[in-house]
Design a protein that fits this description.
The chain is built from 5 helices and no strands. By secondary structure, the chain is mainly α. The chain is elongated and about 55 Å long.
């Protein structure tokens, strides 16, 4: 019996299983959470201080920084970027 996944890559496997979009969204969210956390550390900003700069609650910021929570809005992401003096760039590749 021939292995249908032989010669394919992991993205092909995830696509065939219907999991690619979710896996990519989770990966992007983890990178974004990491980048925000790194900027906070470099600027010595607490979660409360960044939440105040974003005009949001600390619980909203906690959701943004949670790498497992993929239900964060673009508005929240943009707000964090602006509060950190950065620009949020999203593009189709």
């Amino acid at each position: 019996m021939k292995n249908k996944h032989l010669g394919s890559d992991f993205d092909d496997f995830l696509q065939n299983e219907g999991l690619l979009a979710e896996a990519e969204a989770t990966a992007i969210k983890r990178v974004l959470a990491f980048q925000i956390q790194k900027e906070m550390e470099e600027r010595q900003l607490t979660k409360s201080a960044l939440a105040k700069l974003m005009n949001t609650s600390r619980s909203s910021l906690d959701r943004l920084l949670d790498p497992e929570n993929s239900s964060v809005t673009l508005v929240t992401m943009e707000s964090a970027a602006i509060a950190l003096g950065k620009k949020l760039k999203i593009q189709l590749a």
